[in-house]
Design a protein that fits this description.
Blueprint: E1 2-6, E2 12-16, H1 20-34, E3 48-53, E4 60-65, E5 70-76, E6 83-85, E7 94-99, E8 103-105
Antiparallel strand pairs: 1-2, 3-4, 4-5, 5-6, 5-7, 7-8
Length: 123
Amino acid sequence: MKAQFKVSVKAIVEAEGETVKQVFERLGDLAACLGAAEKCGCCGSASIVPHVKRPQNYTYYSLLCQACGAELAFGQTREGERLFAKTDKGKGGWEVYQGGEKGYAAPVASGGRPRQVNEEVPY
């Protein structure tokens, strides 16, 4: 059995399973990730995309704002390989990586402008 579910203006998810419960769980997992935000919590841009980083044999998942470089990080469950949005921080979980010891900082870089996605950050 197969089903589709529209989670946002930009995303329709599809899941397949043997039972209704399996399909429902898979749709729920996909919707929780891809439907976690329709716009950036820092700058309000709708230009957000799924993003995966793999530094030093770890894998990190997030939604990335292409306008200001902010990220909404996802946590991973210990069992079941499920993802969940980490919304417990300010701005609904959206933060801009600034480098340095603490890593994440306010959504605006020095100089009062949003940091660009590929812009290098001075240490």
